[in-house]
Each structure stands twice: as C-alpha cells, then as structure tokens.
C-alpha cells in the first residue's frame, strides 16, 4: 500500500512538472501559445481578485469602492506582463457630478482598464450585458461592486434598468461607464455609437464625459500576438446635457463620436512607439 501511494505521488509530481515544462517551452517557442496563455491568465486573475473578497463586499453591497483593492492588484499583475497605463486629464474629473462616461471597447482585458479608472473616478460603475451575471461567482462579485446588468435582447427591460440608473446618477452621483460601440473590436475606426447612453444622460440632465483609450498595439487578436506596451487613457472635459431634449440625441451622438475618433487617432499614434509585439 505505501508503495502504491508513493507511486501515485510520483506520477502526479511528474505530471505537474511536465505541464510546467510544456508551458515554459511553449511560451518560448510559440507567440500563439504566449497570446492564449497571457489572455487566459489575465482574465482568470481579474475574476479571482474580484471573487475572493466577496465576504467583505457583503458589509457594504453595491458600493463601487469595493472593487478598489482588487483593481489595484489587477493593474499590478498586468504590469508583470508588460502592460502599463498612463492616465491624462484627471483635472476634468468632478466626483460630485453623476453622469455617463463613454469609453471605446477593444478587448476582454478592458476589465483591468476599468479597474484602473476606478482609482481616478471613485464613483464609476460599468454597464455590461446581463449574461455576465450568470458567470458565477464572478457575476455575484460584480453585482456587489455595483456593476449594472442590462438585457440587450430585451429592449423594454434594458430601458427600465437605464431609467432606474438615471435616477441613481442624480441621487447617488454615480457615473455609468458605457461602451457606446456595443461590442469590442480592434479596428482603427470606432464603430457607430448606439444612442442608449445619450438618452440616459439627457433623461437625467447630467453630464457626458468621453474617455478615450489608445489602441492596444501590443495586442493582435488576428495574428495571436500579445507583446508589451503602454495604454494611454485620456479623460476629456465634461459635456453638459442640461436643457437638452430627445431632439438633441442625434447631434450629441455625432459630436461625441467625432471627438472620440479624433482623440483615439492621436493617442494611438503616440502609444504605438511604446508597444512591442
């Protein structure tokens, strides 16, 4: 019996060693392997740092700053993979103002970028698709840090949720982080903006604050490459919507789209020199 147990341990230790060696060799020889490994580890780490403190979140549920420490850990971790963030325009943040923060959406690792912005805004909560709530226990952790879930397939339900959040913008001075493109992509041109976020801002007569994130030149999903680089994030001045009506939605949408595209082009050109893939 002891010999059998010893053999099992030897086998498991040997298997573990083989897996570790295979990962090291794979990372050295294959850019594709490094891409998948880095994406998996970063996303998994982002989930874990949010899930582990769930018991602490219960003391003050739905509080955005619950995610502050997990966010700091996530940013420190991704820096080990060669990705760093540079924030500009902090002087444009007014924590007393609730409103809508618009961001361009590029990758699943945007979750780390959002956690970095929490340190600056302190009252910001992302709006995400409802399906993420059912990714337990990550969905529960996200709910406890204030994340807003909407059902994109049910327009009436999504509108009801956003109406409630429009009240929270005014009452609790929350800023809703919304990706107006609706889906992530790595194109040079931003996708046409959906108008839901602009309706929310006008309904609450609050501000819109564009935040532009430079292109992830270090990350190429098509070629499966994940290198090293800098992400430049620029926080733009607030755009007031007080006095605007539904008739102004189209003009406001176009104005923000043009502004964010211009800044995206400039920041991406600058960030490219700091990226290696």
UniProtKB/TrEMBL annotation:
It comes from the Eukaryota. Residues 99-216 form the Phospholipid/glycerol acyltransferase domain. The keyword Lipid biosynthesis applies. GO terms for biological process: phosphatidic acid biosynthetic process. Pfam families: Acyltransferase (PF01553). Keywords: Acyltransferase, Lipid biosynthesis, Lipid metabolism, Membrane, Phospholipid biosynthesis, Phospholipid metabolism, Transferase, Transmembrane, Transmembrane helix. Pathway: Phospholipid metabolism; CDP-diacylglycerol biosynthesis; CDP-diacylglycerol from sn-glycerol 3-phosphate: step 2/3. GO terms for molecular function: 1-acylglycerol-3-phosphate O-acyltransferase activity. NCBIfam families: AGP_acyltrn. PANTHER family: 1-ACYL-SN-GLYCEROL-3-PHOSPHATE ACYLTRANSFERASE. The HXXXXD motif is essential for acyltransferase activity and may constitute the binding site for the phosphate moiety of the glycerol-3-phosphate. This is 1-acyl-sn-glycerol-3-phosphate acyltransferase. It comes from Anopheles culicifacies.
């Amino acid at each position: 019996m002891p010999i059998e147990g010893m053999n099992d341990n030897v086998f498991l230790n040997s298997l573990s060693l083989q897996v570790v060696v295979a990962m090291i060799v794979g990372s050295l020889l294959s850019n594709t392997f490094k891409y998948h490994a880095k994406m998996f580890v970063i996303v998994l780490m982002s989930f874990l740092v949010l899930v582990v403190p769930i018991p602490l979140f219960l003391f003050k549920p739905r509080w955005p700053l619950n995610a502050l420490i997990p966010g700091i850990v996530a940013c420190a971790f991704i820096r080990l993979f060669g990705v760093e963030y540079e924030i500009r325009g902090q002087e444009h943040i007014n924590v007393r103002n609730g409103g809508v923060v618009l961001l361009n959406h590029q990758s699943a690792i945007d979750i780390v970028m959002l956690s970095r912005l929490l340190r600056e805004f302190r009252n910001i909560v992302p709006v995400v698709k409802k399906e993420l709530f059912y990714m337990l226990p990550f969905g529960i952790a996200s709910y406890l840090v204030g994340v807003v879930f909407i059902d994109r397939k049910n327009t009436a339900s999504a509108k009801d949720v956003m109406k409630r959040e429009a009240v929270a913008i005014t009452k609790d001075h929350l800023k809703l982080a919304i990706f107006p493109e609706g889906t992530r992509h790595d194109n040079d041109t931003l996708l046409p903006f959906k108008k839901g976020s602009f309706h929310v801002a006008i309904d609450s007569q609050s501000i819109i604050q564009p935040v532009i994130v430079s292109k992830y030149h270090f990350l190429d999903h098509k070629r499966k490459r994940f290198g090293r680089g800098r992400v430049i994030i620029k926080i733009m001045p607030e755009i007031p919507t007080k006095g605007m009506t539904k008739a102004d939605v189209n003009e406001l949408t176009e104005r923000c789209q043009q502004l964010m595209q211009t800044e995206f082009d400039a920041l991406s050109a600058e960030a490219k020199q700091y990226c290696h893939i």
